[in-house]
Amino acid sequence: MKKHRDSQKRIYFEDAVYFVTSVTKNRYPYFKERIFADIFVENLRICRRMKQFRLYGWFLGHDHFHALIQPGDEYSISDIVGGLKRNVSRDINKLFTHPESEDSHLRGEHMNARFRSVMMNGVRLFHAYHPYFSWLRSFHDHVIRDDSDFENHFDYIQFNPEKHDLPEDWPYVSENPEYKDLID
User: Fold this and answer.
1) Does residue 9 sit within a domain?
2) pTM > 0.85: yes or no
């Protein structure tokens, strides 16, 4: 067991599964914009591949996300969530000013046709309607204690679209077949 270095006093357990939640600054509903939600999903995909963690379930709402994550041997839950949040913020904010920036993860092979299309059609105008993207500084985590606790948190993730009165076909959930490659 190892403690996190900041005021959160986060505790890390080997082979633990974590339920994590992170919220946008001022609960601003950035993810109502499909392009921003797609950026989150692409960064989740990239982060999972790079940081080699297991993802059992996830949900992205208008202003927050939940995930059930089991870190691998090399990266902690803080490394994983911090990297995801940092890259999502950078890529969304780059859209406001420099949509095809050299340091964006969404260039080349990672940028799908929808991103290219929106970028070609003046996505910089989003800044006229939205403040620069930002998350709250930290995130909430809960160590899953047993199978029952896992099921409760997994069910909570699945119930979130209904809880937040999102459309029945809300696509940004782990059950969406389009994202089956993300789930272990």
Assistant:
1) no
2) no
Task: Please tell me the total count of domains within the chain.
Answer: 1
79 lies in which domain range? 14-182
Cα 75 from Cα 48, distance rounded (Å): 11
Catalytic residues: 172
Asked if residue 53 belongs to a domain, the reply is yes
Residues 6+ apart with CB under 8 A from 163: none
Q: At what angle do helices 113-120 and 34-51 cross, to 10 degrees?
A: 130
- Whether 45 maps to a domain, the answer reads yes
For residue range 97-137, list pLDDT tens digits in order.
654 544 444 544 444 455 544 444 444 445 456 678 899 98
In angstroms, rounded to a whole number, what is the distance separating the alpha carbons of residues 43 and 38? 9
The CATH number of the domain where 78 resides is what? 3.30.70.1290
CA distance 32 to 9: 33
Residue 141 tokens read as 């985590």
